Amino acid sequence: MARRQRIRYELNTGEITKLQPEEIRVILRAADELIATAGRSMLVKVLKGSKDKKVLEYKLDECPSYGYYHHLTMEEIGKRVDYMIVKRYLRIEYSGRLPMLIFTDKGWDIERETYTSEWVCRFKEAVESKVLRLDMFEELKTVNRQVVFAMLDMIKEIGDKRYIPVLKAWQKGEVRKVRQKIEGVITVLENREE
Known about the structure:
Elements (H helix, E strand, L loop, with lengths): L20 H12 L7 H9 L4 H5 L16 H13 L3 E6 L2 E6 L1 H25 L4 H7 L4 H14 L5 H8 L4 H16 L3
Helix pairs in contact: 1-5, 2-4, 5-7, 7-9, 8-9
């Protein structure tokens, strides 16, 4: 059986020499939905807000970064994505013959912080609205453990006792290590002076 050749790619940053911190975060947030499953062209489609069949099929239109660059051309967005690869926020690894996006350590550090903040906001909404969505806890089981622990650290720093009932509800269905971390945060919040 003949070996199939890898699909080649060329990076082109064009006139892009710098991106604003917000743009870097937005691109990394969109990339997080695609890591190890898709490449540059799919990332460009998500950032553009494309109605491409695969974008919709995989619910990538629900990504917070979807359509961020709706006002730019696909080529202009592609240059920004390539900049992120050249500046080592993302890298390309082959899966068989297909080039896939992967975080570098530098990119993951930024995305972990962004994603953690999103989760803290979701918890804050649950606390303030007094509406607990149990599907949120199921979703958390698929979230990277570094993000989960960073989120718990942020909640501990916030120091608001109103988080305790939400944390207790979440704790019930979690694995041992996460339950222990949640218990530690609850203890700190319970002992916090008003």
